[in-house]
Input
Amino acid sequence: MSSQPAAPAKLDAAVLKIAGVVVLGAIMSILDVTVVSVALPTFQTEFDASYARVAWTMTGYTLALATVIPLTGWAADRFGTKRLYMAALVLFTLGSGLCATADSIGQLIGFRVLQGLGGGMLMPLGMTIMTRAAGPERIGRLMAVLGIPMLLGPIGGPILGGWLIDVASWHWIFLINLPIGVVALAYAQWALPKDAPEPSESFDFVGMLMLSPGLALFLYGVSSLPETGAFADRKVWLPMLVGGLLVVSFVVYSFKPRHPLLDLRLLRDRNLTVASVTMAVFMVAFMGAGLLFPSYFLQVRGESTLDAGLLMAPQGIGAMVTMPIAGMLADKIPVGRTVPFALVLIAAGFFAFTQVDTDTSYWLLCGSLFVMGLGMGGTMMPIMTSALKTLTNHEVARGSTLLNILQQIAGSVGSAIMSVILTSKLNDAPAIPGAVDPNTGAPVTEAGLAIAVKQNPDLAQQFPVDPGLLQRGLEFVAGSFATTFWVGFALVLATFVPAFFLPRRRQVSHLLDDEQAPAPVLIH
Output
């Protein structure tokens, strides 16, 4: 390999200018997922729909992401990253505006799918653009910049969503994307370098017919699991089976064409494979925990949506402290020597939540979230840096696509696992003799009543209930959360296994070796 001049140690203004574009897009895409999550009860009231129905505003968006992400690598090579990134911004912004005009739950779900088609391309394209811009010696620092919205989205989303719904209306959780989208488009036109697309690669239609619907069907089944509560339900196992078979068929087929839709040959790189497995296991634990923490504050402690979001803030603060440091270290020290220490912090913080009850100290919980944030800031971006660092410039788009698909699948699986375990535990709560839900006809449990009263104290005055019964129900709910947190803690510990195989020697980057793709020096 020919020697290359070392890249500057610091990120120059030209690279930071490009990073600003990508961060804006990432903030729009990631915040929108978590902002909408707090609006589901509002959608139930506004559209007179069941929770299972309004939950499709989240599921439809996720399925759209899964469908479009595999196309991103080919499209980036064919049309160029700048053109495609701006097209994704337009699609996402247009979908946001249409969501705000929806007057039925069906329309809102359809417009969310359109929004997801744009949002699904923003993250893999952003990773590709930033990796090419940084050069081999600065990937860690640039990934740290991109990691900020990825870690803060689950924290800032509930705060922003709760505030907008309180002071305005649900429409504003979508309307807020319009000015950001316009600014991001103008910024992208000015900051991103001219494209140098490679139209020579043929499109893998056969692969698309297997992978995109396969991922969508598999995630549909996974997303239906919390609603049904059982793998045996046809709504769960049938789409998972069909989707899984399509994905497996694609894996077998993908090694035949010269330019497959998703290039699994990249996994021959040991560092990419180890980093991908580590990240997937980590995302299962991280996304599942991200769902449970605010739910505990809402259901057990009776906090408002806004207050629950604010209580999650220490995690984001912790991540902000360590993420820039981890980015710099990833460019100098092998990630195999730093990530395990960050995982120890996550495990230590997570353990406190396995001990929660009805009155656990907020100082302990917020302190534990801060420690977890410190660990998360030193985990996700270094792992992604390790995965991309040994790819050639030409392979970065396809490597980014592969990582984003793994993130999407792992996140969906993690959320489903935690939801099913928690729901199963809550369903085991003792029923109140003679009490029946007037809407569903189902028996009322002590836990269900305790949650309802905790979230709406007026119910206790309208329908006097034995305080001892409510306390028993609340203790059962807290115990159910503690049990589910033990599963999350075990998943965090499982991340140590693949992390042990992360590189402990400095990696040699090949990003400048590929003469077919634009080198970072073209950025002015």
Notes: The chain is about 70% helix and 0% strand.
